[in-house]
Design brief:
Chain B: This is ABC transporter permease. Chain B: InterPro entries: ABC_transp_permease. The structure holds two protein chains of two kinds. By secondary structure, chain A is mainly α. Helix content of chain A is about 70%, strand content about 0%. Chain B is built from 16 helices and no strands. In chain B, helix 1 runs antiparallel to helix 15 and helix 1 packs across helix 16. By secondary structure, chain B is an all-alpha fold. The chains are: A mainly alpha, B mainly alpha.
């Protein structure tokens, strides 16, 4: 096995595993930039995965090849609606955002498993039959060396995820909406004084995180697990959270970290087949994302600074 | 002041009530009979001696994880890493339990102590990072949970078994299992751990309410700057609080390792005991006596739910929905307080 073969095994798998993390981490960026901590990303992914699989199983016969795409849309909508609970609790009712996020995670798992048992009479769904086809990106896949590595034989949502990171960067840093979003997350009182509706901005941001978390979960379920059970999403939401922190609350950073975590995940799976990695115990690769996040936060990999107002409810008129 | 006391008591009660009502709505909406559902839940928790034994067995770790979360809360920290601390405690207890041959009077305390120590160590890093680098403990403890899960699995495979999925059972001299307790509860898995859990609740109450150190810990949690000004070592207190919280969680793991299961097996995911501990602490108002009651509530909910599929056709996951909603309602206690003040005004 030469280096190029190794890369050809690792890189597409890394992108494949990274896509759900990228979507979800971007969702986290929006929410936390507005000042709402979102520990509930895991739960939002669970809901998205559940909706994605159930929609797919229910409508595959009628909708044919459109099914997986429409399933993603359904997951986006339901994810956004589900995240409203977090928004209502943490923005309107001034709940502790961490506790509310924990409740989101619990509720998502309980509710989706309850409904799976109710609908299918067993703990997990069947495998979905209609997934995404692997595609080659036109033109780009013809580039020698890089083309086959990065742009061939992969799933469309992976490319959408990477594209979305650029879009998010543009939205957060180059548009009036993004400026307001960041203002609300850094200094809500100043933003309020300037006539920005803090509660409204935070609601929107949390719902964007719900939509993207749901999308991430659905992409994971449609492409990677292909069914839904209690273990379908196990820690991916927290890994996305880690990617967001590791990426310093910046869309591009979050994408980079998600790609890196995707690499770690792919290595823990394909590692056994790669010559110089076969003797590394998988456990090191499994814990890598979490250890790196701790190192990042401890300041070993550059200081990671959270939005100033993240975690605190905004009470009008209170200094 | 009086109405504050009353509210402290009313909010968790209302949250539980609202959770149950919401659970009934979910049951109705999905075509189940809530009366039959809750009926079989109560039967499954307290129906006969066996069920009572199982409920008490389930309550045991809940008391300890609830104490762990509450201890951190009371000292101004949010320990979401109880789950990880519990897992390493479980591993340490079983490790000591299988690898030594000692008289019971030494072996059993040693195994429990090892669990406490392991949990404490797992709480040390988040404590140190919080104290010295001001990193929020929530994120670090979440990451520590996953590290605990994967590392423990690897150790079970490589050290405690021969590439297997389960350790050997712990030696009799380190076991909490009790033929007596099992016999009076029709062979439930109830074990002596409940005594340790109750003792731990007393320890926490005594430590926080009756000692100078406890006062310091609470003071630092209440207002770091004032405590600093009063000459307390804020950093040391933050670290100590996290370490003690982790020790409680570690002992919770020992309950599972030495009592309920008597071994440790590799896990595909978390036990949930640590996360449920957050709910137990919140409902118990973060005080030791309240936690004994709320742990019993959660133990009963979890064990009773096992009876729901056969008794009323309701999936057991309904209870997880109820627990999640209870957490929501407690977290949003602002809403409940607002409602209460509305009612009080209306009554006047």
């Amino acid at each position: 096995m030469n280096v190029y073969d190794v890369l050809q095994t690792i890189i597409p798998t890394a992108i494949f595993f990274a896509a759900p993390l990228i979507f979800t981490a971007l969702g986290g960026v929006f929410s936390e930039r507005s000042g709402v901590v979102n520990i509930g990303l895991e739960g939002l992914m669970i809901i998205g995965a559940f909706i994605g699989v159930v929609f797919n199983l229910t409508f595959a016969d009628q909708l044919g090849p459109l099914t997986p795409w429409l399933a993603l849309v359904a997951a986006i909508v339901v994810g956004a609606l589900f995240s409203l609970l977090h928004a209502v609790a943490s923005v309107t009712f001034r709940a502790d955002q961490v506790v509310s996020g924990v409740a989101i995670n619990f509720l998502a798992l309980g509710l989706s498993l309850f409904l799976v048992k109710k609908m299918y009479g067993k703990g997990q769904t069947d495998q979905i039959q209609v997934g995404f086809d692997k595609i080659d990106v036109p033109v780009l896949s013809d580039i020698p060396v890089i083309g086959p590595l990065l742009f061939s034989n992969a799933y469309a949502p992976s490319y959408i995820a990477i594209l979305l990171a650029f879009v998010s960067w543009y939205v957060i840093y180059k548009t009036p909406f993004g400026l307001r979003l960041r203002a609300v997350g850094e200094h809500p009182m100043a933003a309020d004084t300037m006539g920005i509706n803090v509660a409204q901005m935070r609601y929107i941001a949390v719902m964007i995180s719900g939509a993207l978390g749901g999308l991430g979960g659905a992409v994971y379920a449609t492409i990677i697990s292909r069914d839904f059970s209690h273990a379908t999403i196990s820690g991916h939401g927290f890994m996305a959270l880690a990617a967001m922190i590791f990426g310093k609350w910046h869309p591009m950073g979050a994408m980079g970290a998600a790609l890196f975590f995707g690499l770690a995940q792919s290595l823990s799976i394909v590692g056994q087949t790669i010559p110089f990695l076969e003797n590394v115990p998988t456990v090191y690769l499994l814990i890598a994302p979490y250890v790196l996040t701790i190192l990042a936060l401890a300041g070993f990999i550059g200081r990671a600074e959270a939005p100033k107002a993240a975690g605190t409810p905004y009470v009008k008129g209170k200094r | 002041m009086r109405s504050n006391r009353l509210q402290q008591f009313l909010i968790p009660l209302l949250a539980v009530l609202l959770g149950m009502i919401a659970g009934s709505v979910v049951m109705l909406a999905s075509g189940y009979n809530p009366v039959a559902g809750f009926g079989s839940l109560i039967y499954g928790a307290f129906g006969d001696a066996y069920y009572i034994g199982e409920t008490i067995r389930q309550t045991t770790p809940y008391i300890l994880t609830g104490l762990a979360v509450a201890f951190a809360f009371r000292t101004g920290l949010f320990n979401i890493g109880v789950e990880g601390q519990l897992i390493v405690g479980w591993l340490a207890a079983v490790w000591v339990g299988v690898s030594f041959d000692l008289p019971k009077i030494i072996h059993l305390p040693l195994a429990i102590l090892a669990a406490a120590l392991a949990g404490a160590l797992w709480g040390l890093l988040p404590g140190v990072l919080k104290a010295y680098v001001k990193v929020h403990e929530v994120i670090i403890t979440i990451m520590m949970n996953y590290i605990a899960l994967h590392v423990t699995n690897a150790i079970i495979r490589s050290v405690l078994s021969d590439e297997g999925f389960k350790s050997d059972p712990v030696k009799e001299s380190a076991s909490l299992q009790s033929e007596f307790l099992e016999s009076i509860t029709y062979h439930s898995t109830m074990h002596y751990g409940i005594l340790i859990a109750i003792a731990a609740a007393f320890v926490m109450w005594f430590l926080l309410e009756r000692t100078t150190k406890g006062f310091e810990l609470r003071a630092v949690g209440f207002n770091q700057h004032a405590s600093q000004y009063a000459g307390m070592n804020v950093r040391a207190n933050i670290i100590l609080a996290m370490v003690i919280s982790g020790a409680f969680a570690g002992v919770a793991g020992a309950m599972e390792g030495l009592g309920t299961f008597g071994n440790i097996s590799t896990k595909a995911g978390f036990t949930g005991l640590g996360f449920d501990g957050i709910a137990v602490a919140l409902i118990g108002g973060n005080n030791a006596f309240g936690i004994l009651l709320s742990a019993l509530l959660f133990g009963a909910l979890k064990v009773g739910s096992l009876e729901m599929p056969s008794g009323a056709g309701v999936p057991t996951e309904l209870v997880d929905i109820i627990i999640a909603l209870i957490i929501f309602f407690v977290a949003s206690s602002y809403m409940i307080r607002w409602l209460l003040s509305r009612w009080q005004k209306g009554a006047e």
